Amino acid sequence: MPQSDEETLVLKASNDSEDESQSGSSSDEIVSINELIDDNKQDDEQPKEPQKDEKKPNKKKLIIIGAVAFVAILIIIVLIVVLLKKDKKPTQAQEIIQKVEQSYKTQDFKASKIDDMINKANQLYEKGNKFEALKIYENIATYNQALSSYNLGVSQMKQGRCDEAIASFSKAIQDRENTSVSAINAAVCSLELGNMQNFNYYIELANSFLQNESNSPLYSYYFALINYYKGNYIEALHALNHPSSEHYKDKYAYLSAKILTALGRDNEAISKLVGIKEFDTNIVLAQLYAKKADFSKARDHLAKATKNTTQIDLIKMTAAMIDLKTGYYKDAAGFIKEVYDINKSMPSSFYKIKATLNPEIFDINLAQSHFHDDMFFDKVRRYETIFYFAPYKVFDAKQTMSQIRKGGVSLFLDDTDGANKYLGAGLNVSEINIKLSGAVADALNYKLKEANAQFKKLSQAYPEHSILQYNLALTYAQLGNFSLAAKHFLSSYHLDQSNYLAGVFYAIASDINGNLSPKFISEIMENLESDKNLQPSNIYTALLGLINQNQAVMIRYLEEPKDETTLNLAFDTIIARIAGFSDVMRTKSQKLLEYLPSDIVANILNFIANNNSNSSIKQYANNIQIYFKSRPLDEMAFYHGANIIKKQYIKLLQISGLLFYERDKIKKELQDAPANVNLLQTLAYIQIFTNEFKESFAVYNRLVDEFKLDDANTLFLASVAATGANSHNNAIALLELTSQTDPSAIENRVALGFLYQQIDNINAAIIQYNKVGNTEHKNEFYDFMLINK
């Protein structure tokens, strides 16, 4: 690969301006060789000094002989000219070279001519005309007898022939020719070849001979370069800040920027780079801005770089990395594929990535420093809260409530009128409702997996039953499988298009999955507008307003008088939060808490409504401890309930510093019930956040192998633990399994893409990125980092 400017040191002649004025083709340099030949001929053909003859010839006789000789010579010359004009063909450069080599095998060409060629090639190379430069380098290599070993090494290095370059630089070192600089270049070539032993040898050799360059205007630069490669960044930076010459300022600035970047001082590195005029630094600036997550400026510099570069593939891969960081997975896939189609190993040669986990999930200090309570109200959290408080549908609410012994049960039930309309003739509504009520009871008692299994069995027995499809979908949504939730909500809505809640929930699940259909939104809006039994402001249009971010529609619904169901109260709390109505949020969350005093999610909403996150994080953490330690919370919900309970509660525990206390409490409970699946799942989940990935993965592995858990959420979290434990092959296998049961889950596919790209399975990564497409989805767990090769 071509080396960067500071890595390839070329000693340029001082007559650069003269070189610029010469003709641009390499053939001019070959003509100069002919001039050398002419010079040699003149030397050989100089008349020898005449020897004195003791006898004087007859003068007249000499005149006659001379005249005859002159005529003869003139005739010969005329014949030669005629023959040459008749037979002469254009002589190719290579023929001239061969004749020169045959006739003057021992002749050494003048160094100045070769240096001119080197300077000309270097100028073309630095301006991006690499093809023309390499042609000249090839011509130079042909005349290597006339080259110094150092300059030969430079030309070989520029062509990427590192093995040959090292041999030339070694010869230069033996001949004491530019010893320190030759050793630096040999070290760089060794590094390019991955030969660290040779690299260390040559860099130390360069250091030992550096004193010979003490009078060089580039002494400080050489000193800095050696120390940069040795990892002595502070010493190198000090030398660059105290240059031995006012020349080569841009080279000093560029190397300073590299060192500052290695030291993590990115802002200072950027300041160094923006002032460089000698060469284009836009790609490097794009990389630095991307590192700082200033992706807008990074893209601006990439756009500038495309106007003057031959490194278009590097630009494409840089753009791909930025797109992966910002959710433009489809665009990233396009860039990567373009480079991959040229050379399958090229994407990883530019950027080698490693799938990582978001450090905030296990670093309490980082979590606290980045904390804001809006994290409890981002788009997905809002939707999950809606699903959590949504009602289950039954045929006979009174009959169901008699079976379910739980406070506030009526708030979670939606009594469906006209049950016979949904059941075939001759079927007993009461009998069906009993089975339905049993599944609902499990769901409301935080036995979601059992409820899900029962609803699945009932929906298979009665596939045309809209209510069963709706309830099955709701359990999937609460378990976090939004692909299957969307599928069954849509089935429910198609079976009964007056079941607007099923239709709206399908749209919400689709929005989470990143495949919301504007056409479907238009259709359901038309159905709602044409229904004369609905008020203009109703919960269905308000929920669609949440999807469309139509605050006016939501506020209108907030102000409407309505029944105090769990869904209405929770939705009003969310609307008040979005609109900034703090008093209304406190009132609505307090009312919800009155109905559900031991519910964890209701308590979290109430806590956030009454505590200002703008106060210090220590005070906020202390408030969490005081509030939740004094509340009689239903811990069964934490162990067995909906996903949102674990997510929200563990985040609060992490911020408050109570997570390790909770982990130890679960471990103690497991001593009495070592096979309690729900306790094991909770422990494994907490251990992800306590940075105990190996322990977490071991528990998840047991849950999958021994207890046969294969739901998408468990498999995904197991992959998170595996990734944290650096068991990437296991993570890939687990994520492949999740894609079968939850194919629309965005983060699952993004994680697969990162992991496949990490192991250089670029084509598989491209497939995953294309399936995700461009999305606003923010990954909760997975990220990636660039690693040095």
UniProtKB/TrEMBL annotation:
- From which organism does this entry originate? Campylobacter mucosalis CCUG 21559
Supply the name of the protein: Paralysed flagella protein B
The keyword Membrane is annotated on this UniProt entry? yes
Q: Which gene encodes it?
A: pflB
Return the TPR repeat spans. Answer: 146-179
> Which superkingdom?
Bacteria
State where composition is biased (Basic and acidic residues): 38-56
Q: Provide ranges: composition bias, Low complexity.
A: 22-32
The record ties this protein, via Gene3D superfamilies, to:
Tetratricopeptide repeat domain
Q: Which UniProt keywords apply?
A: Cell projection, Cilium, Flagellum, Membrane, TPR repeat, Transmembrane, Transmembrane helix
Q: Indicate whether Membrane appears among the record's keywords.
A: yes
UniProt region (Disordered), positions on chain: 1-57
Q: List residues traversing the bilayer.
A: 62-84
InterPro entries membership: TPR-like_helical_dom_sf, TPR_rpt
